[in-house]
Amino acid sequence: xxxxxxxxxxxxxxxxxxxxxxxxxxxxxxxxxxxxxxxxxxxxxxxxxxxxxxxxxxxxxxxxxxxxxxxxxxxxxxxxxxxxxxxxxxxxxxxxxxxxxxxxxxxxxxxxxxxxxxxxxxxxxxxxxxxxxxxxxxxxxxxxxxxxxxxxxxxxxxxxxxxxxxxxxxxxxxxxxxxxxxxxxxxxxxxxxxxxxxxxxxxxxxxxxxxxxxxxxxxxxxxxxxxxxxxxxxxxxxxxxxxxxxxxxxxxxxxxxxxxxxxxxxxxxxxxxxxxxxxxxxxxxxxxxxxxxxxxxxxxxxxxxxxxxxxxxxxxxxxxxxxxxxxxxxxxxxxxxxxxxxxxxxx
Length: 347
Prior knowledge:
Mean pLDDT: 85
Number of strands: 17
Helix content: under 10%
Structural class: mainly beta
Shape: globular
Largest sheet: 16 strands, antiparallel, barrel
């Protein structure tokens, strides 16, 4: 057959080669999210004054495109362009600013020094611990050393979300981060981290030296996970979460699914700057006076994921039994239940 169709195969090879030359060494991926979210009630105990959950119901969308370029066999360059979360039907937000704007939220270079050491520099995603208090964009440098069993990570740079979203560079402070994660056996992973906020202690809730521990256990389709975080110098500066789930959800594989239930507890001087988990109450929640600070939160989150088709997933979230942590407030405050349903497309 190769002899019989040699001319056709040669022509096909030429066309594929020309296409590869046109595309070059850049890989393009992306995702689109359609989301419906809201809360059960409005009022003085509402979640926050702007952004997500700022209305009783909201239908919005977001799109991201990522470009991965192979510089050489050791170096990669990555750029990601993302829209903001724009509400469908609205051209402007309540402040009069145009919505749906594009920003470059990832731009970094990753260089490998052999198989076990790499350095990343630029704007990238930085997870603190297992993501309870932060898993979002970060400006700085990151060092990774490890193998399949043990991984060390160090990073130095600036947080850019939550309380730090509108802080100019001259007023932002750096953080220094170090973590170790390891696989005890095929079922259990554990990790620990330390983060230094390189700033003077200004307020009682200012974070300074933060450490934490986490574990993920997987037994067939059963998942059990937990994480705890603490600051060494501030009172009530702690947070922890524990959860259980079942399933094998994979967005790329049709028919896979999972369910999870998690409990969260934040002390009154600790908040989620930008959590890995979809909790609505974070470090930017306003109190009744409109003052923004860490505030404390306790509550439950349930999650259901199902892959409708390959690379198309349906997710539903419900947060309930939420309340403030009375360490800070003189009275008990029951917080609004919240919900979220979304379609996620990846390509």
